[in-house]
Design goal:
about 425 residues, binds flavin-adenine dinucleotide, single chain, six-stranded mixed sheet
Length: about 425
């Protein structure tokens, strides 16, 4: 434990980000209370995701080409992307900021930072696996970006080139070489890009492990408790108001996922955030079990072996906090499987429960990590979109460093929650 002054820190949200913040803060000696609006037996975005740790995802969502692709997909009910048209000032402002960020200069600035965060997080996952006899199920075999067409493979080859320029190993392989890399499944692909540093794990096991470690370390949890208001005094937050009473503390962490923006609205803080709904379906007895995780490049579907099960996940629907399931989009996902893995059938997925989660998405594809200028003792830890699991351990470490008055191990000015003014 460090010699910094011990504080009482309240964390709003017990998803993967909140739990990683809790354990990192507790390891520095702080008293930590996590407030979570759902009961302890819960679900949510951090549980049913694809479980991938992805240094390969160094290009932010806001990138050139994305707006045109999004527009094309909008009109196909089975496509992986959809924005529910609605007159929402938040959505329109978010969209304009997304368009502004989707340029080469932003990607050039963001990519090295995402790379640094990803590699630091990956190292922390290795450490966690070592400390827990790998009960989180970390598998370090890499990821295949599988391409049906030569055109997609050529585009991915460009990404591979940029990855190597950033010092990330990436190899373009033929269909035959992909089959050698993953003998667990028969594929029908033109080729793939192999990212050997990517890993996968079981999110459920990870969350259970983190919760157990937090409890053992002395972190307190208040389940079924929702942060509704904040009490302030000049430039400090002094307490959170909840349905179970007021909880005073020295510092606060906002880790409320897609609900974060609404949670700080009463503080008049603007945090541009849209929920990006995604689905997953888990096959309990797959016909074949790949050894590696992969992404179907054209279909934008993530495929992850988890123990003896196989999970497929995907879609990005900007429909506000609506949690309904759009069956056509789920069908779009499951119908993609036999195109890449021809021994599977879309029927394999019929009647399986569909899981959904709301990813907290910032307009520029970067998370919000840092103190709010207006309230110095309130720290944001949200907006990780498609990389929340991947970046959770480093997010926890950075928040703990900040609230302990230490220099952060990664420069995070670009992640400020105030960056949109
Ligand atoms: C289909 C799919 C696949 C994905 N695959 C991957 C992947 O392979 N790798 C990866 O890195 N990421 C992946 N993600 C993204 C990842 O799941 C998210 O980025 C991550 O779970 C976000 O975690 P979080 O803790 O910020 O939010 P959440 O998990 O949503 O947690 C936030 C918590 O805060 C609570 N809360 C909110 N407001 C309040 C309040 N006012 N008071 C009290 N509690 C509150 C909520 O109840 C919730 O439990 C995927 C997502 C989806 C949907």
């Amino acid at each position: 434990m460090s010699a910094t002054r011990q504080q009482h820190v309240v964390i709003c949200g017990a998803g993967i980000i909140g739990l990683c913040c809790a354990t990192a803060l507790r390891a520095r000696g702080h008293e930590v209370t996590v407030i979570e609006r759902t009961p302890e037996a819960r679900d949510g975005c951090s549980f049913g995701n694809a479980g991938m740790i992805v240094p390969s995802h160094f290009i932010p969502l806001a990138a050139p080409g994305m707006p045109a692709l999004a527009l094309k997909w909008m009109f196909n009910p089975k496509s992986p992307f959809y924005i529910r048209p609605r007159l929402s000032v938040d959505l329109i402002t978010w969209g304009l900021r997304f368009l502004r960020a989707a340029n080469p200069a932003h990607v050039a600035r963001a990519a090295p930072l995402i790379r640094e965060l990803s590699l630091a997080s990956r190292a922390l996952y290795e450490q966690l696996a070592a400390e827990t006899a790998n009960e989180i199920g970390l598998v370090q075999r890499g990821l295949l970006m599988l391409c049906l067409s030569q055109h997609a493979l050529d585009e991915e080859a460009h990404v591979a080139l940029r990855a190597r320029e950033l010092g990330l190993p990436a190899e373009v392989v033929s269909g035959a070489q992909a089959a050698i890399l993953d003998p667990g499944v028969r594929m029908a692909v033109a080729g793939a890009v192999y990212f050997p540093l990517d890993c996968h794990l079981s999110p459920q096991n990870l969350l259970a492990t983190l919760l157990r470690r937090a409890l053992t370390a002395g972190v307190k949890f208040q389940w079924s408790t929702e942060v509704t208001h904040w009490r302030t005094a000049s430039s400090r937050v002094t307490a959170v108001t909840t349905n179970n009473g007021e909880i005073p503390a020295d510092a606060f962490v906002l880790a409320g996922g897609s609900w974060s923006a609404a949670t700080v609205r009463s503080l008049r803080l603007t945090l541009p955030l849209q929920a990006g709904k995604g689905y997953s379906v888990t096959l309990p007895h797959p016909r074949q079990l790949p050894h590696l995780c992969s992404i179907f490049t054209e279909a934008r579907v993530a495929v992850t072996p988890m123990g003896s099960t196989l999970r497929i996940g995907g879609t990005m629907e900007l429909s506000g906090l609506d949690e309904s399931i759009q069956r056509a989009r789920v069908a779009g996902m499951t119908e993609a499987v036999p195109r890449y893995f021809p021994d599977f059938s879309a029927e394999d997925f019929r009647d399986l429960p569909v899981w959904h989660g709301l990813r907290p998405c910032s307009p520029d594809g970067l998370p919000y990590i840092g103190r709010f200028g207006r309230y110095h003792n309130l720290c944001a830890a949200t907006g990780h979109a498609m990389m929340g699991l991947s970046l959770a351990p480093i997010t926890g470490q950075l928040v703990a460093e900040l609230l302990s008055g230490e220099k952060t191990s990664v420069a995070i000015d670009a992640l400020s929650p105030d960056r949109f003014g």
